[in-house]
Amino acid sequence: MNAQANSIYWQSNYDEAHHQAVKSSKNIMVFLIEKDKPINKEILINTFMNQEYINTINKKYISIIITKNQKISYPIEALFTVEYPAVFFLDNNNLFLCNPILGNITPDRLRAHLLKCN
Fold it and tell me: Model's pTM, two decimal places?
């Protein structure tokens, strides 16, 4: 039987997640959202749950959800965007692995980025 995770293991504190990424030699995936937007829930359900790439993400990345203007700090200068939602892919030194996904984050777009961002 193949045990497969059905969702991403999300964290909400960037500093703690970054520390964990360094300690475990993983990359970082940041899902940057605006508060109270219906598209966020839609993307979480359709793109970040019950997809074949979920195990790969959980194995290779520390994943973080950050809400625009949240009080807990994150590298806002590095993760600056005017288009939400956005997904950024960073190594554990906070360097970009590839361009972010901006706007509608579909399973196909995420799948393609996972291939080129590794």
Answer: 0.91
